[in-house]
Every structure is written in C-alpha cells, then in structure tokens.
Design goal:
Largest sheet: 3 strands, antiparallel
Strand content: 25-35%
Order of helices and strands: EHHEE
Distance between the termini: 32 Å
Strand order of the largest sheet: 1-3-2
Structural class: alpha+beta
Helix content: 10-25%
Length: 70
C-alpha cells in the first residue's frame, strides 16, 4: 500500500454537516512537526481533514459538527 496523504472517512459523511475552521496551534509545532499535528488531529472522531501551517502556527480542520467540535 502506498501512502498518498489522503485518508478516507470510515463512514459516509454528508457534506452539509461538514464545517471548516482554522485554529491557532502555538506551541504544538515545538513538540511535533506539521505532519505529526495533522496526524493527531485526524485521529479525533469526526475530523475528515487537517492541514497544519507551521509558518502561521495554525491548523485548518474540516470536521463533522455532529460528531465533534473545535
């Protein structure tokens, strides 16, 4: 299996219930690289996509608001 950077959701997700938000992640980048931050966030239930930006110390997260919240 080849890593593609894409992780398919475990169950179908309805797009109208999806929400995207950008969170400040100051301090996280000292402990983890941006890939580690993304990996940890994608482990959370309901998170479909996480994109970390070390330059701005922020993370944009797409999630199912019926499953989790920021």
């Amino acid at each position: 299996r080849q890593a593609t950077g894409y992780r398919a959701p475990l169950r179908p997700v309805r797009k109208e219930k999806m929400k995207t938000t950008t969170l400040q992640a100051r301090g996280l980048f000292e402990e983890l690289d941006h890939l580690g931050v993304e990996k940890q966030l994608r482990r959370a239930g309901g998170v479909v996509r996480a994109e970390a930006n070390p330059a701005s110390e922020s993370v944009t997260v797409q999630y199912d608001e019926n499953v989790t919240d920021p």
